[in-house]
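Collaboration report, partner site 2.

Our partner group contributed sequences for two proteins of shared interest, and the home lab folded both. The records are reproduced in the order in which they were received, starting with the first partner submission.
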Amino acid sequence: MIGSRAKCRTILDKLAGDGFGEADLGRIHAPIGLELGGPTPAEIALAILAEIVAVRHSALDTAHPVIYPRNNPLEKLAAQQRPADAA
């Protein structure tokens, strides 16, 4: 789901209130996109596609929590490669 963490949480809370279970909500990637640190639309698009490809190739856990913590191995690698002043 594309949106801020707050918007995603609001929508997911509404879906839970409407009767969607943990299994249903657990399949939603929210907010979508790896945390690559890029602010431009092109970089955001790349982050979204990177997550799609990673999930497709099982490089990310496909059953991550609804608003999952940003602690997967690909994001840790990206954070290590980011210049110190960009962190």
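Second partner submission, folded after the first:
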Amino acid sequence: MPLAGLAYAAFGASFASHSTGALVAVLVPATVVLVAVLVLRRPRGTVTPIDRTHLPWLGWLVAFGVWELVALLGNDLTISLLMDPVLVIYPLRVAGWVLWLWAGWLLVRR
């Protein structure tokens, strides 16, 4: 599985940023994961409720989301635009894809 993820990351990184090919390369694994989560339901274990230790992280997440939304609606720089100079370098783009796929895998595993 890790080798397949690395191969897909190398494939996805071959597309230019913000291109149709990159969009399709993002949508394919996202759709596969979404369908898998909806179809392959697992029995749920006990869920840890959100307590005070989670609130700072939730605050950061909300602040980041608001910042991105305001930047997007105001035609300002978003994280994806700020990352473009870094992601021009192919090995760093592959690393970004690997991190994105890994984060998705962690979310699905839970």
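Feedback sent to the partner group on the second submission included the following. DSSP finds five helices and no strands in the chain. Residues 2-41+54-109 form one domain.
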